[in-house]
# Entry
Amino acid sequence: MSPLHPVCERRFRFDLNGKIAAVANHPAALATIRVLALDHESLTEDRKRVIEEFIYGPQGDEPLSPAHTQRALQAICERDMQGRFYEFCIAIRDALEVHVRALRRLAQRRRAVRRTS
# Structure
């Protein structure tokens, strides 16, 4: 699968740990992961480090707020002033989507606890 193909980024998903998966086990995506070793341990660790630092801060103790997460989701895959993309922007975007879902679940639990208190 060529990275220049218009649907390329929609064929892969990344989790908070930097792991890559082929969406719906798409054959070309699976082959790309295998041939390019996109699931190699060192690459996965690099993605994980970048994701954790982006979402939770350099020390891991400053998670993005819901508002900052939403803004980051909108901007993470845009080019910077020099025309470059943020390192691992697609992996970060996917992880931010997971983070948003986790924040929503947490907010729902907190509301439920307040109602029962």
Residues 8-116 form one domain. Residues 89-116 form the longest helix (28 residues). The longest strand covers residues 12-14. DSSP finds four helices and two strands in the chain.
